[in-house]
Amino acid sequence: MQLGIIGLGRMGGNIARRLMLNGHETVVFDRNVDFVSTLAAEGAQGVADLQALVAGLQAPRAVWVMLPAGAPTEDTIEALSQLLEAGDVIIDGGNTYYKDDIRRARSLAEKGLKYIDVGTSGGVWGLERGYCMMIGGDADEVLRLDPLFAALAPGYGDIPRTRDRVAEDDRAERGYIHAGPAGSGHFVKMIHNGIEYGMMQAFAEGFDILKTKASENLPEDQRFDLNVADIAEVWRRGSVVSSWLLDLTADALASDPKLDGYSGSVADSGEGRWTIEAAMEQSVPVPVLSNSLFARFRSRQQSTYGDKLLSAMRFGFGGHVETSKK
Amino acid sequence: MQLGIIGLGRMGGNIARRLMLNGHETVVFDRNVDFVSTLAAEGAQGVADLQALVAGLQAPRAVWVMLPAGAPTEDTIEALSQLLEAGDVIIDGGNTYYKDDIRRARSLAEKGLKYIDVGTSGGVWGLERGYCMMIGGDADEVLRLDPLFAALAPGYGDIPRTRDRVAEDDRAERGYIHAGPAGSGHFVKMIHNGIEYGMMQAFAEGFDILKTKASENLPEDQRFDLNVADIAEVWRRGSVVSSWLLDLTADALASDPKLDGYSGSVADSGEGRWTIEAAMEQSVPVPVLSNSLFARFRSRQQSTYGDKLLSAMRFGFGGHVETSKK
Amino acid sequence: MQLGIIGLGRMGGNIARRLMLNGHETVVFDRNVDFVSTLAAEGAQGVADLQALVAGLQAPRAVWVMLPAGAPTEDTIEALSQLLEAGDVIIDGGNTYYKDDIRRARSLAEKGLKYIDVGTSGGVWGLERGYCMMIGGDADEVLRLDPLFAALAPGYGDIPRTRDRVAEDDRAERGYIHAGPAGSGHFVKMIHNGIEYGMMQAFAEGFDILKTKASENLPEDQRFDLNVADIAEVWRRGSVVSSWLLDLTADALASDPKLDGYSGSVADSGEGRWTIEAAMEQSVPVPVLSNSLFARFRSRQQSTYGDKLLSAMRFGFGGHVETSKK
Amino acid sequence: MQLGIIGLGRMGGNIARRLMLNGHETVVFDRNVDFVSTLAAEGAQGVADLQALVAGLQAPRAVWVMLPAGAPTEDTIEALSQLLEAGDVIIDGGNTYYKDDIRRARSLAEKGLKYIDVGTSGGVWGLERGYCMMIGGDADEVLRLDPLFAALAPGYGDIPRTRDRVAEDDRAERGYIHAGPAGSGHFVKMIHNGIEYGMMQAFAEGFDILKTKASENLPEDQRFDLNVADIAEVWRRGSVVSSWLLDLTADALASDPKLDGYSGSVADSGEGRWTIEAAMEQSVPVPVLSNSLFARFRSRQQSTYGDKLLSAMRFGFGGHVETSKK
């Protein structure tokens, strides 16, 4: 099958590669011409602009946009919508807010264009492991594009079957689902990331206690000289917390147990915030997901105005003067 | 009435003063001889050691220990217990863990000594406003000492009566209660401080949003140039959040709206932690009280090992490199 | 001065009354004709529709809309904008989302109409105590309407002056502020309510521990038979947590210490959620404000799907079967 | 090698079985004689009391206690300590509080007895998958017993090696570690369970949002008819949240997507609470771990006293009457 791909960064480039490895044809574009020529050298049809990309595809065309959410994606889809013709489909594989998907799908439908949103998980490992995809949009169109999704997905692999699973639709077991109408793909991916934040923070807090327990600041009779790399390693085998994130933790701690290579300033993308918004809209209590997000906010500041206000109040009622004692 | 007082710091010294202002006699001791001579100059009987303190009191003696919780208080009470005689009473006015009170009361009872724990709120303002006291111990003994408690307490003042209040015991309205047996005074005070942490953190977070909303880092069309000192001031009048902590906030912001005088490294005493322990013992969910405590822990660190682990995992699965962007 | 008031419920009715008590003239409307006639009997000019209200006011007219946020307010302002003329001002005294204020102010300005948003705190007590007001909009227009705001506000009262306060603008000390341009009034009120949620939850958690400590489910040697009404009462005097919310708590516990009259299903209005959204927009960590909101969400459910999933996982890895044991 | 095992429940019985499968000899005891005879039929030497168990082992004896933490374990170890002789070792494989381990190790050492604490993860799956073990105690003694630990552990399996891992000690890769001195094994296991709570709660909250998004209570245009079983399934393949807990979630949702078989009353064992205590001792902020625990507390109550107090305050300041509206 043929797919146009716009945006050849870490994700888009490997998506093109994995499709080509599986016998599909790609027409690729990026503002960075080096990215285009690299992929052209690997067999893709590189093009110099959107017009050429559209021209290089047979109708009904499918164009995968793999760009940062927000303006870059929005502008590109707007531009594409001027170039494509009725029956063509735009696939947004990025991290778009699901309400933007719903809006776009409606707007593009007026021009006879189709819109599919794909929440794509897999990061830098997707080329090798395959991409886990959560797809929103028209069911028939998703089926029409199935060869592409099947090629990108991890497939059954050697993962044990889920006990009691009886389902007509085996796509989930091959690593992708049709979640529902436009927006639902990114909605499910958004929640995925929300959970991811929570799991990461659970590990972060637990390892923080372990590391602190080994701290030389503790009196010797309260200290355990724990080997955090070994702990991560052993939990990978037979423990309840075994997980891919733990595998990555073990990787990181094997080479840098003190994590001196990191400052601890942790970014967050939109999904964590949108997850909290969705929870609030639906009145679902999410203390863990929200505190995981807030821990990231806090990690990026040295001290907060709020902390200073606490100090000011303590001075006010008790004459407490700040000390540097931990 | 006559009271021995050990520990003449911010709290103990003013307790002596307020008692003397109300016509009571005090025999006072502190390791710091300057503190003793200052109070002696104000009318107290200053003494040089515990023996002299005990000798200066008529039986049945009452000795108020106003020292930091933990070893200073524990050691002093142990020493006192060797010097006092059956029928005497030791009053711990500090921030002792209530389980230590229970243990001590039992142990002192074996020697015929009485023990009373007093959770004392009022900080540096107590001399003027009076001390709010939560008292644990034998009911009769608490009654016997009532003249002292009544003198230390704020009294009715001009605070409006609570609607529908019908109670035989009017001590609560005069600012002190007999909470129950030994330990209950400090238990109630401990919860008071837990709530205090939560209220303070609520203000801290709210004012942090207000201050950040006025930040020059925000695009101009998203910014409000808010006057936080005026906001604290206006809320003191007729708003739902009016409170003494808000009064103190208004004080602080009136003189230093940016709070540049504070680093934001916020200490915590034992009560916040013990409150969480009590909640866990009783299976009571306390997300706000615990997060208030954790915010203080966090305020005293520049970055945590946990934060670094988050960065390491993000690099592991997505190749995300830390940036300093907030 | 003359003011039109639309919406004569708990808030709007008393606003009219307090203005009339201070010598102002009101022209009032409500869909509920009984509300109108009640106020007419107290001296207001009651009218039957918006047209009559506008006709009853001299230009430049000022109309205070005191309706539920969302559609009721939105529709009324839209209708008013058709009836008013350039130079008139619409005041939204409800709990509108501040971004709606910004939008409306822009849109009304195109017609030459002015828009002022007033965050109003004071609840059922406002008639007597006065209303604490946070006002957004054009500074000159806010000044022009000052006689109205001054009448509604609590005034200096007998509240002690804030130490070190030096400010040209004494309105804050009289209970109202001009916070900034359109939207800023409701923004400040929104944060006020966010803080209010946090303070309330701090009290809720603390009293929950106190009450549980007195529970007959606890072994006798771990129990304190605490009097929660007395505890609330005593904290009103000289303690750090003294506050209006504590006064209300003391009121409630004086008449119903077990709170049997309440089911514990706690509603939330928009401000709590919007506060979290604002915090997320500004990357401010707000664990206490958010957990206070989530506690309310949780209070309205008997059990959550999430809780069931926890049980399912526990059964999955450990064979743990649910029991009813607390 | 030879091992005595006391406690033949879900864990102890399978530990005996896995050891026998690997050629070791077991002498087994349980108060429930049926458990003993069942294992005897599978090749263990069943005994009727502790004396017989000790008599059935050659010195230096090793006895594994696999009982509920607290009194059952404590009393058994006390009894054993009377029967064993210098050089023998007691292994506590349960979920004991690590400070109890430290105390016991000291006390037993006075009698020449050794003590090893083993945090054991693996639940009902351990027989098949092997047990992940975190071991505290004397290094030499742990080495002496290595054949037993090696047999119980999962072994290398087909789990990919951790990148960059260079370690002399390959036990971690075979599923067990010597964490340090007495108590450290249970300390590490305790943190493991703390993390487990956090990860579980992250999934619980995420799936709660997904399920609620599919709720018929939502207006149709805000609803997605999501298939939660498919979502869990697809995330098992290539997504960042893939984990054993997700596998179990997929199992549970495959057979009961609405989770109607569960009430959602979620128990907690000591480790979650002790993790918070450890964090507080070390001043480590743990919002996610603590909120996970509190969610469990909350799951076991229909409404809290705290919730009722919120309602009472809302009625107090705003006249808000509780409604059942969600």
Order of helices and strands of chain A: EHEHEHEHEHEHEHHHEHHHHHH
Mean pLDDT of chain A: 95
- Strand arrangement within the widest β-sheet of chain A reads 3-2-1-4-5-6-7-8
Shape of chain A: globular
Evaluate the radius of gyration of chain A.
24 Å
Identify the most extensive interface between protein chains: A-D, 103 and 103 residues
Instruction: Specify the oligomeric state.
Output: homotetramer
How far the N terminus sits from the C terminus of chain A, by CA atoms, comes to 62 Å
Sketch the major β-sheet of chain A. Answer: 8 strands, mixed
- The DSSP helix count of chain A reads 15
E-strand count of chain A:
8
Estimate percent helicity of chain A: 40-55%
Secondary-structure-based class of chain A equals alpha/beta
Question: pLDDT under 50 segments of chain A (min length 5)?
Answer: none
> Hey, roughly how much beta strand do the residues of chain A contain?
5-15%
Topology (elements, then pairings):
The structure is a homotetramer of 326-residue chains.
Chain A: E1 2-6, H1 10-21, E2 25-29, H2 33-41, E3 45-46, H3 50-55, E4 62-65, H4 71-83, E5 89-92, H5 98-109, E6 114-121, H6 126-129, E7 132-136, H7 139-144, H8 146-152, H9 171-174, E8 176-180, H10 184-213, H11 228-235, H12 244-255, H13 270-281, H14 287-299, H15 305-318
Helix pairs in contact in A: 10-13, 10-14, 11-12
